[in-house]
Amino acid sequence: MLFTTLVCLQGLSVSQAENWMRQLPEEKVPRLDSDGEKYRELQLVYQLPKQDLEERHCHHLGTSECRASFRDFAYARNDVALDVAVATEVQSALASVSSSSSGQNKCPKCSEDIAQGSLVVVAPRVSRWSKMGGTEKPL
After folding, report:
1. Contact 35, 27 (CB under 8 A)
2. Which helix or strand (DSSP H or E) is residue 86 part of?
3. Is 0.70 surpassed by the pTM of this model?
4. Number of structural domains, the chain?
């Protein structure tokens, strides 16, 4: 299962969003008319190719069975794996990251503590999938 996640900075203060962008390599910061904007657009095409999103972009779905199979795929993908992640500040234990016995948030990938006030990315559907027994971890 491939998890497709976009990050939304909506809801962050201007200083938090600027801090977030400072974490990125300069050439990947998506400023208007920049290499970073082109990089972001290429990443979106890679993560969400048009032919995976809409039937009208799939020119080789000849039979009605193929089109029905595509619609089933799109429905399942939208329900389980397609998500818009949200960057948020850690206030207390988050449901989408693991918590230690002391109540500290831990990164599910590296198991390091996540300090209160840190910016993190959470994707509710990815977290739900993991709790349902999904074996792959988001990147």
Report:
1. yes
2. strand 82-89
3. no
4. 1
